[in-house]
Design goal:
Helices cover 48% and strands 11% of the residues. The protein has helices spanning 15-27, 46-53, 98-133, 140-162; strands at 4-9, 32-37, 75-80.
Length: 167
Amino acid sequence: MKPNVLILCTGNSCRSHMAEGILRAAAGNLIDVHSVGSNPAGFVHPKAIEVLEEIDTDISAHTSKHLDTFLDRQIATVITVNRYHWGFDDPAHAKGSDEEVLAEFRRVRDEIRKVFEAYAAGLREGARAKNSTGDASQSPHEEKKQADIDVEKGTEFLPSLVSGIAL
């Protein structure tokens, strides 16, 4: 069973869905990714869907969900996309012409993409390290514990992977 990763936002309409789509595309074979909100807007912003389609990532079936939806699941990692952790501007507040607003959504999408693809690279590196040890004799409990460690390794690699990325 793959570890669950929650991407938490306030409104669960833009940033968290973009991050979920990007991280699922980059590491969906290693983790199950879900986005949630503490005060969900009740919809996924159409421009978030539009700008992810531009990078061949379909989030059109996503729905806005409250974080309580996942209280009964084991969560390996919670990533917030508000300004407190992996902070990203909220493009839902962009002003200007339709093209200017779309440009802001693209800018935020590209920032999210850089950070989450770097995180996924760390997860892949952790998985490669695990595979190179070849320990196939683990119990299900040990496998779960190892999966949690691998996800943590993904976050350990993140600073070195994103240190050269200007956000």
